[in-house]
Write a structure and sequence with these properties.
The chain is mostly helical. The chain is 57% helix and 0% strand. It has helices at 2-9, 11-23, 34-51, 57-66, 71-77, 81-92, 100-111, 123-133.
C-alpha cells in the first residue's frame, strides 16, 4: 500500500479533502469524507474476491480515494466531480509511482463511477457498485429528504 499512502499524503490530496470537509461540515446527507473512501475501497476488495476477479488492491484503493476528491473543484468552480477527479487522478497518480496503464485505469473508473455498466467485474464496475453499496440508507435520519430515488437506496443490511 506504499503508493496509496503516498497518494493519501500528497499535500494537494489533503488540501482537496479539507475543502470537501469544510463544504460538507453541516451536510445532513452522506458525506464524502475519508471514511467513505475507505468503505468504498474495502467493499471493492470484497466484491472482487466474491466475483473471482484479480484486481490489484492498490488500484482499488487509489480509485476509491480519488472517486469523490473532485468534489473540491465542484464546490469551488462548479466542475463536475467525476471529471475533476479524473483530471486529478491523471496528475497525482504518476507522482505516487502508478504506471501509465494503472493511471489510465483509475482515471477511467473515476470518470465513469456514476454510470452503471452491464459488463463483468472491472475496476470501474466495482467502484460503481461499492460506491452505491457503501451508503447506510436504512439508518439515515435524512433518508426522506434525500435526492436518491428509493430504488437506489440501501434499505436493508447486505454486506
Amino acid at each position: 500500500m506504499e503508493r496509496v499512502n503516498k497518494l493519501y499524503n500528497l499535500p494537494e490530496y489533503q488540501e482537496a479533502q479539507k475543502i470537501i470537509d469544510r463544504h460538507e461540515q453541516d451536510r445532513i446527507f452522506c458525506r464524502h469524507d475519508h471514511q467513505h473512501s475507505l468503505d468504498v475501497a474495502r467493499l471493492m476488495y470484497i466484491f472482487s474476491k466474491e466475483s473471482g476477479v484479480d484486481i490489484d488492491v492498490e488500484l482499488m484503493y487509489a480509485a476509491a480515494l480519488m472517486h469523490d476528491i473532485g468534489r473540491a473543484l465542484q464546490y469551488i468552480d462548479a466542475v463536475p466531480h467525476h471529471a475533476a477527479g479524473a483530471e486529478m487522478s491523471a496528475q497525482w497518480l504518476p507522482k505516487c509511482g502508478f504506471t501509465e496503464e494503472e493511471t489510465e485505469a483509475v482515471v477511467e473508473a473515476v470518470q465513469d463511477h456514476r454510470q452503471i455498466y452491464q459488463e463483468g467485474p472491472t475496476l470501474k464496475t466495482l467502484l460503481y457498485a461499492a460506491d452505491k453499496a457503501s451508503r447506510p440508507c436504512y439508518s439515515c435520519g435524512a433518508r426522506f429528504m434525500c435526492n436518491w430515488p428509493e430504488e437506489k437506496m440501501n434499505l436493508e443490511l447486505n454486506w
